[in-house]
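Go through this chain for my students:
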Amino acid sequence: MIKGHGINGAQIMFVGDYGGRDEISSGLALSGYNERCIEGFLKSARLPMKYIYRTLFIKDALTYLGKNKRKMMAEIEEAKLKIAPATYENILAQEIKDVQPNVIVPLGNLSLQFLANVNPIGSYRGSILPLTHEIQQHLKYHVRVIPTFSPRQCNEDYISRVYVQLDYNKIVENRGETGPIETKEITWVCRSMDSFNNFLNRQGRPDFIVFDIETYMGQITCIGFSFDGREGVSIPFHDPRLSFGDGLLLFKKISQILASEIPKVNQNIKFDWITLERFRLRVENVSGDTMMGFHLLYPELPKNLGFQNSIYTGMPYFKDEGGKETAYNPKHQVKDRLYLYNAKDCISTFQIHQLQLEDLKERGMETLYKEKIIPLIGIYKKIDEVGLRVDSTVKKRLNAKYNTLLDVSLRSLERLIGEAMEPGFGIECNPRSAKQVGKLLYEELKFPKREKTTEMGAKSYKTDKETLEELSISQESPCKEGKLILSLILNCRKIYKIIEYINTPLHPGDILKTSYNLAGTRSGRSSAGKTLDQVIVQNGAKYEQERLGRSLQTITKHGFEMDGESFDSPEDRILGKDLRSMFVPRRGYVYIEGDENQAEAREVAVLSNDFELLEQFDRKPKIHARTAALIYGLDPFTITKDGPRIDGSSMTYYDMGKRVRHAGNYNMGPFRLAQMTHLSLRECTQIMMKFHESNPKVRDVFHYEVYKCLKETSQLTTPLGRVRDFFDRHSETLRKEAISYIPQSTISDQLKFSLIPLKERCPWAIFVVEAHDSLLAEVPVGRELEYAAVFKKEIEQPIDHRKCSLRRDYELIIPAEFSIGRENWMDMEELQL
C-alpha cells in the first residue's frame, strides 16, 4: 500500500483520493509532481513542506490512471471491493486520530465526501467546513476541513492555480485554530411588519443595501435584504404563515426601500431589476453589481456568486441550498430552506461588494467601475425590454422562401449521396444529425476520421462546421461527389440556421427581444442570447418550456455564403441577408445605425506605430480597397464595397481586403483565412505572405510588444483603463487572444461608454441593438440629424493611448458613419450630416 508520511502532530494534513504513477513508484503519498506542486503553493504561503502530513484515501495502487472518468470510477469501485468494507475509511480515520491535525485538506471528491460529507470539490473548494462527527468525536480539538483542487486538476485547469493559491493561504492562516467553527452571520425569515420594522431600526443609515430575489416559474418567491453584511432577512411573497394585512404592509415597505435614495447592490442586478419592475416594484439608485465588479477585476475567472464567495468571504459554500429553479421545487422542499438561502445570498453579496471596492481602488479601476460600468446596466436593461418589432407578413414570406430552398437542397443532397453509393445502397442523412453525417462521411465516403472523446470516455465523430470546412479545404475527396456532399451538408445547415432565426419565439406584440450580458466575454465586449422569459409549447404529446428571443448581434447584414456550383450568379450564393427585412421601426420612428468607421483596423495601426498607414484611412480609395489591390495587383480606385467580385466567388475584392487585414492584424494563419473565405489553402498562404511583407509593423511592433508584456507581466491595460491578467499557460492560442484584446476591448468600450451621455442628451431615442462597433436606434421622425450629430460628438471623443500598456503619445479619433432605414433594418441608406 502507498504510505502516508510526515511529522506526527502536523497541524495540516493533505488527503489525496488515490495515488498516481509517482506515488506507486515511490510508495509515498503525494510525492513526485504532487509534492513539488504542493510545496510551491505552500512556499508562496510561507510555510515549509516539512510541517505537513500527506496521505491518500485509497492507498492501494490502481492499474488504470487515465482521463476516462467512467473507467476511473470503475477502477475505484473495483479497488474497494478487493478489501473488507470500510477499510480505506478506517485506515484514514486512524491516521487522523494519530496525527491530530488542526486542518485537513481533501484534494478530491472521494476524500471530501468522507471527511465533510459533501461534494463536489468544485463547489466547496475554499470553504471552511467541519469534520464529520464520526471522526471529530475522537479528536482533542475542532478540525477545519478546507478542500482545494489537486495538483493534477491544477495542471488540467491552469488558470485555477491563481485561486488555489488563495486556498493555500487560507489553509496556512487556519492551522493554529482549534476552537469550534463559529457562524457570524445571522439569517432569518420575516413574516410580520413588526419584526421587519425592528430589523430596520437596528440598521441605522447604511452606505448601501443589498437586495436579492428568488423566482419560480417567473413569479417572485421571496426578497432578501442585508444592510451590514452580518444580518440577512428574507421576506416571502406567497406564504400561508404570512397574514394578508402584514403582506400588504411589507409589500409597501419593500417598495419604499427599493425606490429610496440609498444605493442598491446585487449580483447580476439587471435580472432582479427587470423582474421586480414587472411586479410594480421600482428600483432606484443602482450603485453596484458584484458580477460586473468581479468581471472588471478578473475577467478570466468565474463570475458566479458561489465562486466569489469562496474568494472574498469566510462563509462556507451554500449555493446548493436553493435558488436556482432546477435546485428548488416547492413540492419537495421546505420553503424556509429557500428563504434562508436568499438571506445568505444577501450577506455574501454585501461582504463581496465591500472587498471588491477595495480591489478596484487598489487596481485603479474604481472610477471606471462607478462612472462607466454601473451606468450601463440601466441602459442595457432598457435595450433588453424594448426589442425589435417584427413584420409578420414579411416573416411568413421569408419562411416560405427558405423552407422551399431547404427542400431543394435536401433533395440535391439525397441525389448526390445516391450517386456516390453503390447501386441499391440507401443511407439516411439528416444534415443536423452528427451521428448520420459522421457515418456517411467517415464510414461510407471514407474521409479521414476526426473523432472526439467525452470525459466519460465515449467516442463520437466530429461533424461540426470547422471540421467539415477543414475536410473540404485540406483533404482530397475520396470520391468525386465527396466535396460536393460536404458543401451541401454545410449549405443545408446554414439554411436551417436561417429558418431558426426566422422562427425565433417572439414576445407579445410580435417583438423579438434579446438579453445582453455585459460580463459575457473576457475582452469586455457584450454578449447576447435568449431571454429568461418562457412560453409553454406543445411537442407531440408533451408540453415543454421554450425560452423567448435570441441574440440580435448575430443577425448579420452580409448573410451566409453558400458553397457549390448550383447558383446562377455569385450574388445568388449569398443567403440570409434579407433576414433584416422583417424588422421594422415603430410607428413614427426610423432606424438610425451609427458605426465606428474601420475602428479596429485604425486601433491596430496606432498600436503598430504605423501612422503613415493611419493617414490612409481617411483618403480615397479606402484602406480595404488598397489592401485588396495590393494582393491582387489591381487599381485600388476600381474597387468599391459593391464590386467587382472575385472570379468564381460571391465575395467582392473590397470584402476580401477587409478579411485579409483582419486576419493579418490578429495573426491568423492561412488555414483560418481559408475557412473564412472558402479559398484554397495555397492561395491563402500567398495572400498572408503579401500582407505581412507590406505591413511589417503589425508583427514587428504591435505583436512583438504584446508578447513582451505577456512575458514580463502577463497583463495588458487598454487606453480606456480596462485591465486584464492572462492567467493561462502561454501558448499560441493565448498569444492570439492577447493580440486581439486591446483593439476589441477599446473599440467596444468606446461605443458602450458613449451611450451614457448619448442617452442623457437624446432621451427620446430608443436603443435596440448594440453590436460591438455599431448601435441601432429608433429615432422619432424629424430628429434624425439631431440624433446623429450628438452620436458623432460622443463617439468621436479622443482615445488617449498614453494610458495603454502599449503606450503611444497619440489620441485616436474614430470617425462615425450613419445609415437610415425608414421601412426596415435591411434597406438602409447612407445618412449624411
About this structure: The chain has a mean pLDDT of 91. The chain has 29 helices and 32 strands.
